[in-house]
Design a protein that fits this description.
The chain is mostly helical. The chain has 7 helices and 4 strands. Strand 3 (about 85) and strand 4 form a beta hairpin. The model has no long low-confidence stretch (mean pLDDT about 95).
Amino acid sequence: MTEYFGDGDECHFLYHFPLAESLIFEAVTGKKSVSAEYLQNLKKIPKNSSWLVFLRNHDDLSLATLTEEEWELFFKTIDPQKRFLFGEGIALRLKNLCAKSRKGSDRCLREITEKLFSIPAPIVLYYGDEIGMENLPFTGKERDVRAYARGNFDWIEAKRQSEDPRSLLSFIKELAAKRKH
């Protein structure tokens, strides 16, 4: 992927999909992947370029860079019926991805978000992940399963969490404030 940066004269920001896939895999399954290798190589790009790090895309998470064994374990853990399979990826929000974690959803969400904020690169959070929004209820009626990850932002939950110092939103605000310094 680094070839897209050129010599710093091509693309200056690039989403690091393999890192996102590896971080999610590790958080959900508890198994090691190659995230440490990706993290070591973050700086091996032109000086005027940067990776954009994230945990999932706006309506799905590609899993194309996982090994076949990792991919199978991931789906066996998260979505054995493959109801949310989209291409080689999965159409689930971050809270839904963490729901089957051995650590539990809330702990998984906090730990993986903290890991994301520890990476020295610009961060992208997709709407709703900062308040732990979940997929819409699965009905099986949608032809495109990404529709279940595209619900409207929950402003009532956001207001509630903004008033709760122990909420996920407050936790993320603290992480963001620490990055500024």
